[in-house]
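User: I would dearly like some help making sense of a protein record. I have put the entry right below:
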Amino acid sequence: TLLLTAYFVSVERNAAKLSEVNQNLEQEVALRESAEKMLSRQAQEQSRVNQELDRANATLKQLVSIDPLTGLLNRRGLQKALFEVMEKARPEQDTVHAILIDLDDFKKINDTFGYVVGDLVLKEVGWEIKKSLRITDPTARIGGDEFVVLLPGLREAEAVVVAQKMRFQIAQMSIGLSTGHSIRVTASSGI
């Protein structure tokens, strides 16, 4: 019986130790599960922040290269587009022509009707220029009333036709004002 008693005491001690080890393991599992949940939440938050940052960066890229008034490229955007066009052009085979368009007497529009109307004219002219081109032709507003169009792959005679067409379309525009009046503009261009 003494041996049996010693055996049961030993079993009880071992059971107590196993119970303590089991509790420790359960606590460790609970801590790990809690840590995994926290890491999962942090990963989701990091993903959300990264998406937000990507959207902000895309907006910044656009702001850096797009004229906010007309939605056309600005000078910086034009420089980038020119570099890309020149990179694609094969030496001695491909040509790139540029058309500079300047609105005639634009200062008079601003002085007579104000800058709000002047801005409207610039937007409308920018839209008219853009819609008369190929989608691949970079178009920019580079100054107050100056626009540039790059025409990759066209021969000079074709570029002249495009320039004449744009000047004609601009001259045909009638920009209506809220006062009931309308404004007509003309443009000069050079290749």
